[in-house]
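User: tokens in, sequence out, please.
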């Protein structure tokens, strides 16, 4: 079930308040973001994914001790924008989403440090080795990948919805590409970079990934 847009907008408003930013322009941007998050052909990267990310962020941002989130508001802002632009056939979604975030934050007068930090967080969700993952970016990436460690039935729905988004790709090509992506996560020393996520989801994520790879390599859809 899709989350209530009014509740999502309330969280957007709360984020603005934490950054000392409110008013009509901020509210209008929240509504614009939700329109984009609700666009065709999204099946996984929709408002349900945004809601899940925000819930993980809200739970994790109060974590204390070494490696705690240093700038929760920047992570929250990055989550709102990280899939704001999403076309499955494009390889530039994260870059375009990051540019959108940068334009909005600069118009809002946020500091250069915050703008650069949010942009870096968003670009890290490309999940490519070349992107530096440290500091709060570890939290950003772990939140985005939290779906990998969810119960098997939730993970299976995730795989079905990703396939729906890529239904224009013929099965043999999809099978090879999807296996490569999932294997790349399994090949990491750890799927999750923060102890908070690793303690909760690492074991299940590896089980889900291995099961998904077995099915895909046998030619079975979810």
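Assistant: Sequence out:
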């Amino acid at each position: 079930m899709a989350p209530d847009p009014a509740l999502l907008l309330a969280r957007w408003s709360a984020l603005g308040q934490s950054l000392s930013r409110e008013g009509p322009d901020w509210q209008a941007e929240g509504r614009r973001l939700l329109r984009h998050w609700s666009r065709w052909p999204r099946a996984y990267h929709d408002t349900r994914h945004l809601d899940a990310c925000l819930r993980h962020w809200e739970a994790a941002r109060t974590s204390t001790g070494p490696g705690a989130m240093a700038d929760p508001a920047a992570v929250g802002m990055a989550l709102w924008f990280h899939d704001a632009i999403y076309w499955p056939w494009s390889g530039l979604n994260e870059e375009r989403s990051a540019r959108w975030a940068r334009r909005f934050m600069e118009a809002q007068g946020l500091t250069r440090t915050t703008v650069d930090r949010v942009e870096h967080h968003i670009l890290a969700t490309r999940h490519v080795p070349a992107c530096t993952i440290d500091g709060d970016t570890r939290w950003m990436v772990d939140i985005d990948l939290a779906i990998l460690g969810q119960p098997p039935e939730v993970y299976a729905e995730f795989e079905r919805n990703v396939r729906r988004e890529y239904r224009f790709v013929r099965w043999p090509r999809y099978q090879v590409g999807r296996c490569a992506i999932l294997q790349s996560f399994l090949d990491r020393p750890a799927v999750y970079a923060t102890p908070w996520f690793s303690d909760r989801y690492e074991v299940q994520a590896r089980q889900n990934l291995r099961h998904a790879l077995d099915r895909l390599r046998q030619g079975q859809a979810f």
